[in-house]
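Q: I'm a student working through a structural biology exercise. My instructor gave each of us a protein and asked us to get a predicted structure, then write a short paragraph describing it. Mine is FAD dependent oxidoreductase domain-containing protein. I'm not confident about reading structure output yet, so if you can add a plain explanation after the tokens, that would really help. Here is the sequence I was given:
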Amino acid sequence: MRCIETAAGSVHSVVTEHGEIRCHSVVLATGAWTRLFRGSWGCAIDFTPDAVPVIDAVDEIPGLLIASGFSGHGFGIGPAAAHLN
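A: Happy to help. First, here is the predicted structure for FAD dependent oxidoreductase domain-containing protein. I'll explain a few features afterward.
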């Protein structure tokens, strides 16, 4: 993913190396996919004290969610988290 496009303050689409994909929501999950969005590998595993991920909406951009703290389980749990919106 190269960028997130907004229209009227809400998520409108994402732009990838293959073109634009229209959508009404985006979940940014840290971990393996971070390299695609930020351009570099993080080399860290994000976690919370209770090992339960934190998933929350960004109030300023309706349709944008941040998901973090998968404690190394993002490959298994991350895709399911995208369906929460």
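A: Here are two points you could use in your paragraph. The longest strand covers residues 10-16. The CA atoms of residues 25 and 85 lie 7 Å apart. It's a good idea to check both against the output above yourself.
Q: Great, thank you!
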